[in-house]
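Practice set, problem 2.
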Amino acid sequence: MSTLDQIYGAVLQDITETATLINPIAAIQQELKAVAREPSPGAMFQELLLVFGLLNNATYGLAALQAQLATLTALVSLDNTAILTALGTPQQAGSPVTLAGTFDQEVCDAVWNDIPTSYPRNMGYALVNAAQSAVQANYFGTPPRFGHFTINSIDFPTNDFQIPAYTLPVFDPTDLLVGDTLLSMMIRQNPTATVVYGNPPQTNVTIEYAGGTGIGWITDLDETSFSQMKAFLYPSSFAQNAPVWPGLANVTLLTPVALDVTLTVTEAMNGAIIDITSVPIKQGFFTFGDLISWRNVGALAFVDDNGQAEYPQLLGLASAVYLPKAMVHASGVVVRASPGVTGTITPFTIN
């Protein structure tokens, strides 16, 4: 039972006892009023006898009332003691607050322990989170959002919440290359930062600047939305056309295969690099500046996913790149090399 319940019960009992005393006195008063209204001596005598009887009644006469009043006085005294005990010693105005606990650690635990949520967090941690949220909401002037980036993390100093220096990330779609991914473009445009994907399986990109600047960023784009943005900004670059060489940084070189008189490479590819290392003297050659192009050393033809080959392309230059002319992707390539010709063919895919 709570302290308030105890106090309420004691006061209610005192009121009930008082009402018990008041009821008989009210009855005697009514009889006395009746006596005052009666004109005849006989009637007045009868009424006075009745009042005398009431005053001497064992249950509610004067003696009984006196006994009940003594009982009530004792009860009120007991209830007063119980109420004061239940209240204890309340905090007085102007006095220092006294916290519960037998030692400082108990007080600290009672105030700062985990808050009861579905994901319990230390109370101090919760207050730090609230302060960080205020900072991220532009309270201290740091933009929580900048272009395609939002603040990913803030590492505050130990003793205050002053916002540290920060560097804004770069996102320049005019610098976008055909073979770019979101990650490759962000790495190229933010060379002084650590640029990686977010937590797997996310393909949003996080950017952290070195030197303890305290600000990290994460893109609101992932690789899927980035591809859609590329197709929207540069539709001609993403039409279903034959591939073009996008630069070595934007291709993945596959396993090289030695040239032979007849050779088939069955592998998805966007093109192939031919390196000719040795040719019989009888073949002859042409020169293109410092480059050598051998005569009659072979040819290759890319094959589609239905097994058909496009028109062959002649081999010649000692090192050259070849791409399909009539398809976006090839499912393989067939090669013919003249006897005695050695070298490699290295398929590649565009990133």
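Problem 2, part (b): a different protein.
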Amino acid sequence: MKDKINSPKGRVNLFQITDDGVWLPQARTTNTVLYDWGFIAAKAIGEGDQSYRVNVMYIEFENVSPSTDPATVPSFTRDEGTAYYTGLSDPRDYLRVELLGLPGISIESGYESYFTAGETGNLLTFLAQSSGSTGVNGTTFSTAQNSKVSGAALVAAPVFADSTQDVVFSRTYFNPTSDQVLKQASSQIGLSWEVPFT
């Protein structure tokens, strides 16, 4: 019954970031908001607990061979959160990265009459980029290993040093698999994630 409830949809953009910092668009998809978003909102909005703000992104990858092979795109439901990620094993893993600052606030298209541009809004845009050479579960993330980014998640990490307390807000995958992006030498993978509150 609960899986029949429509979930809000955001938009996720995938980029290659060149060594001189240019974000080159590669793919665009939508996301699925998990049921745990309600707990995040209850803590942050209801209790005023700032530690539950969305501040982390998971970047899921798979080491493929040959490099033209697609990464796995799993099916999932709205009640599947951190347990999925901790259960990943070589050749699949994920990077756990801090967001690039606070999200931007703007106005979702069609809601311009309700807000003042530059002052108020109902659309958050989160930014993150890949970092490091090893996934959380120990799998190498590198060009040499043909690490291919296939998905991502927005996450509230109330204690950044303790990932066991993470709560997943939303998940997404890049499908068709032609939208997936390989890690390139001297570059990173970037993501922008738009979450409308409508």
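Answer key, part (b): The mean pLDDT is 94. Residues 37-46 form the longest helix (10 residues).
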